[in-house]
């Protein structure tokens, strides 16, 4: 075993009373299993897999210390001996694999989605329906006691520590900032008074749990909201937290109501490590940095340059539970990399569904989506090596099937080859890299530049058709005009367009194309931060400052037939980012459009009953996809066992999350 490639990442961390086996913290993620029936059994399998994979310290999803602190009325609470007993199954499973685990205690404050919400002041959050009640002195003291009691119970439940959620705009953060604390008693007014609540919480917890118990405090080091903290204030609070008994300070970036992206795939890798570095020389306890760290090399570079003492990764452990073990064995190429898409994790949790992972549908389904060895050797043919075909081929080969994968092009990857060329979606090439590697390792026979017909497939035990989609050609008079190009041709052939472009169709692909056409060239981290108005000195409150936004020289119109908001894209938690980027770049968004005709003058449309002529140089078609799948009918007629998956099954909006899961589920059932 060779671990010389990442010496800093894999070095143990001595906390005095205990030692962590490396510098990797698995950050807190809510999975939805915390509240589901039989959820703890599934959750224990989920965390055990990550402990077995080598994580130094795991932090659970957030549990509320009392009823009012719950995020939703039915959210998980941790405040009774009964809860402590129920959690034993989790801590035991992690300890059996040699891991350590801390329970996150999170009080939602004004982010609570119920009428019992409380906060420092009665100020409604812009992302909530409920105005919180202002907490009385008695309620504040009882909440401090609730944090201490829950921490004591966490110790009884076998946890190695707790993480106190003091960032992201939750209750503790709400006391700290003027934005949400308008009090004039001992809990508000001056900064000293506003930070009294977090400091008293830590003191009470430390007193209750003793010295040999990890207390992580998630400190909001960059609020990214108006009336947030300055760097000077963050330093002052960090020193007081250290004095009060915190073991580790974890970095929090941005409130949930902040209008700066912090973890989406558009955010450059390790975009906020400079924030942690600014605090590094001010305290003597270990600091954890976070956000968009998704490879061992990125993590190693952060630690070797002494920007932090530990790195926190959350979503990368959904993508690959064996991330650390693979780094230890110098097998970084074998890691299934998180692409930061949010589509199966945050987007699911946001609507109350169980979290999983687009590139690893087995995440949070460890006890259900199991690839058991096949009882009898069978031959499987898969037609199409896009995301669905590749995922199915690897899963079937893992089970022991003999798999042939046919692809008409000279490369694998399907639509991901287009996606990875969109600015901010470069990570998609990592998924192609991972699956290409797994196809090789599992012995799949990949036949490139090999169109296949029914006759060639009739000898297989199972045939899986995953031939993907092609752009839909809308029936608009003049649609074959030389100004018109479809999105696949545009991206694949890197066609140069004029300065005035109309984009027909405002789904995920239309949004991506509009972004690609208006994005500044060669944007580095500093210019990205500047573009979003992030103040690297954090002298301005919340780390935001007035700034000029980059407006594209190219004029783009993005249109859709249906009325309502344009440019949301597919993601629940990232839709606002897409819209904001398009607005920043000066893209004109039009809804309720009917397309009349295309001619030498340009695109003739009608909007709200008014005719308009867009005198454009080019028109890009992003009006959905169609499947051209005809193979399955021929195979059925020949009595071949045939399955149709992915875009060949449902064309619609391109949905990698659906097609990869569908492929692996099929492979598990064969």
Automatic annotation (TrEMBL):
Residues 9-333 form the NADH:flavin oxidoreductase/NADH oxidase N-terminal domain. It comes from the Bacteria. Residues 379-642 form the FAD/NAD(P)-binding domain. It holds the Pfam family Pyr_redox_2. Keywords: Flavoprotein, FMN, Iron, Iron-sulfur, Metal-binding, Oxidoreductase. InterPro entries: Aldolase_TIM, FAD/NAD-bd_sf, FAD/NAD-binding_dom, NADH:flavin_oxidoreductase, OxRdtase_FMN_N. GO terms for molecular function: 2,4-dienoyl-CoA reductase (NADPH) activity; FMN binding; iron-sulfur cluster binding; metal ion binding. Its cofactor is [4Fe-4S] cluster; FMN. GO terms for biological process: fatty acid beta-oxidation, unsaturated, even number, reductase/isomerase pathway. The keyword Acetylation does not apply. In the N-terminal section; belongs to the NADH:flavin oxidoreductase/NADH oxidase family. This is NADPH-dependent 2,4-dienoyl-CoA reductase. It comes from Photobacterium proteolyticum. The gene is fadH.
